[in-house]
Design goal:
With 623 residues, the protein is mainly beta. The chain is built from four helices and 25 strands.
């Protein structure tokens, strides 16, 4: 509020002074008049000086108020001295605790979460601290419905317009996602005994912490720069929990460069493997260069196409030390040398959305190829280097000295292809509200609409994935009865033998997941999948070097809103039955997410068997 200058008060004071001094001049003689005039002049000069000081203060206050008004209109989250409404406009009245006032505090802030939690027990009534899963399938690769034995949570904070939303400012946003996983191969949660109170039951993981900057170029404000750690445009087949393109990690990049035919995204990412240490290069490190041209129109053909190009490089070196389980640095018995490793690959992704309902009515197909260390992930391939080392030691038992695996990794390859179809019937009567990025486990936009009149009463997912991979070397190990963990005996008459098996593996799986709503919020849901693996190359287990298959059947009631596959939340009750070939006995029950492909299998609860049950309940939601 502007303050009026004290002009009227000053004039009154001057008039009073003139009147008073004039009266004195009549009563006094001429000898004192000159002194009185001098005093009056001094008083007037003092008043004029004060007037100038008042005017300077008013000018300063006006400038400060203009600055505050400008900041309020910009909507910056840094404005703490100006009260604004839900639209970022300044309000002068005292605040009231209503919806508009609360929105004024959070207009640039959004929060999302993904959570799943539950319990499961096996067919004999004991704990179900395992999943049914092929031993070599890439990633987690497990059927999710009634077959996830861990508790997992992601919490995402997103802050927009951190510098303000004025078109003259760079538009900066922040995303932060910590995750918590309960490692359920231990006892159920209990903080009052020495086992679960050891601090090793919960994994705290930083999944995302990055900044985005738009409006860097005024002529193309949509071009976005980012840096930090993030889910980087990853793709998965959700019923399988299988991420077939996932270069997420630490890095930097630029997105939404309009090339006319599509939008170009370019990223540079890095992956560190710190177990082994080289005095020449330090820890093993993988660099990923990822370029994608997205939203390519296909003319008369509906849907869009994305083209992917990925290059990788890992600098070679000689590793002489490693960290032990206590975190101490120790010398390696056999120093390990690898040449520099390269990789190149890419492919195409086709995406179609039909009808309303977002991802609940969509079709995706992909084909990817990679040579060398391009395997569609950003993690360093130290495990593959150690696999080549183990083959040398298997062939030369008792060897001491440096082991050189050369350029073995450059001979590897990974080919992938697959599809997924999500369909809800009948289609929605109205389109769902948009969902901001980050509102799913994938960090991708997935529509999860609330029930609407005429919402679908039936939905189904169909999916299939294939991979042909070669590690660049073979594997050496043993097979026979009594190997692995627990009672995994396949045939007591079969001797324990040592052999070398190929690093070439074919994996195929396909399935479906239907849901029938019998009421607005109650459905019957199930999942079926069939899986095949051509060569199990995990040494030390009875199925080493053998092919095998796995079938999983799941069914049960679920409480969820009508709408389709992606409507959440879901409260599930399930019964899961799995059946596998005799060649994979003892190798289909990993005890944690991600254990497949590396061992960590628990013995089946009913001993030497090729089938099993899991029962339980689970909740899953994201918003």
């Amino acid at each position: 509020m502007k303050l009026p200058p004290p002009t009227g008060s000053l004039c009154a004071k001057v008039a009073f002074a003139l009147f008073f001094t004039g009266s004195l001049a009549v009563a006094q003689d001429n000898s004192s008049s000159s002194n009185d005039v001098s005093a009056l002049k001094a008083q007037i000069q003092g008043l004029e000086k004060k007037q100038q000081e008042y005017q300077d203060r008013i000018t300063s206050m006006e400038a400060e108020m203009k600055s505050l008004e400008s900041k309020a209109e910009s909507g910056s989250i840094l404005n703490t001295r100006v009260l604004t409404d839900a639209d970022g406009k300044e309000v002068s009245a005292a605040p009231t605790l209503d919806e508009s006032f609360l929105k004024s505090l959070t207009r640039n802030f959004t929060f999302s979460a993904y959570v799943r939690a539950g319990f499961q027990f096996n067919g004999n009534g004991g704990g179900g601290n395992f999943s049914f899963e092929l031993p070599n399938f890439p990633g987690e690769g497990r059927e999710r419905l009634g077959n996830e034995n861990d508790t997992y949570m992601e919490l995402t904070w997103m802050q927009s317009h951190m510098l303000g939303d004025s078109p003259d400012l760079m538009d900066v946003s922040m995303t932060f996602t910590p995750a918590i996983r309960y490692v359920q191969n231990r006892a159920s949660f209990d903080g009052h005994n020495n086992v679960t109170n050891s601090g090793n039951d919960f994994d705290f993981i930083l999944r995302q912490a990055y900044l985005e900057a738009k409006n860097v170029f005024k002529g193309a404000p949509e071009i976005t720069f980012w840096s930090g750690v993030r889910f980087y445009d990853r793709y998965n087949t959700d019923p399988e929990d299988y991420f077939w393109l996932d270069t997420s990690g630490y890095g930097a990049g630029v997105e939404n460069i309009d090339l006319g035919v599509g939008k170009l995204n370019v990223a540079w990412l890095g992956g560190l493997a710190a177990q082994d240490i080289s005095p020449g290069i330090g820890s093993y490190f993988k660099q990923t260069f990822d370029a994608r041209l997205k939203d390519i129109s296909l003319g008369p053909i509906p849907g869009t196409l994305a083209l992917v190009l990925i290059g990788n490089y890992e600098k070679g070196g000689t590793f002489t030390q490693q960290y032990d389980t206590a975190g101490n640095i120790v010398n390696l018995t056999n120093p390990l040398h690898t040449d520099a490793a390269w990789g190149i690959g890419g492919g195409a992704i086709y995406n179609l959305k039909f009808g309303p309902g977002g991802g609940n009515n969509s079709f995706t197909a992909y084909a990817l190829f990679g040579r060398g260390v391009t395997n569609f992930g950003s993690g360093a391939d130290l495990g593959s280097v150690q696999g080549a080392e183990n083959l040398f030691l298997f062939r030369h038992p008792g060897f001491t000295g440096e082991i050189n695996v050369g350029d073995a990794l450059n001979h590897g390859f990974t080919y992938r292809a697959g599809f997924q179809l999500y369909f809800a019937f009948p289609w929605y009567s109205s389109a769902p509200a948009p969902v901001v990025a980050g509102n799913s486990k994938d960090g991708k936009e997935v529509a999860a609409p609330a029930p609407a009149p005429g919402a679908p009463w039936f939905s189904v997912a169909f999916f299939g994935d294939w991979e042909d991979s070669y590690s660049g070397f073979a594997f050496g190990g043993t097979t026979g009865p009594g190997l692995g963990q627990g009672n995994n005996v396949v045939n007591s008459n079969e001797p324990i033998v040592s052999k070398v098996v190929s690093g070439h593996v074919h994996d195929v799986q396909f399935g479906t997941r239907p849901a029938f709503w019998i009421a607005d919020n109650i459905a019957l849901q199930g999942q079926f999948s069939a899986q095949y693996e051509s060569n199990n190359n995990i040494a030390g287990y009875p199925g080493f070097g053998k092919a095998g298959w796995l079938g999983i059947f799941d069914a049960g009631p679920v409480i969820k809103p009508k709408g389709g596959y992606y409507t959440k939340p879901e409260i599930r009750f399930f019964a899961t039955y799995a059946l596998w070939s005799n060649s994979l006995k003892g190798m289909t029950t990993p005890i944690q997410e991600g254990s497949g492909g590396g061992g960590g299998f628990a013995a089946p609860y009913n001993g030497n068997t090729n089938h099993g049950w899991l029962f339980g309940t689970q909740v899953e939601w994201f918003f």
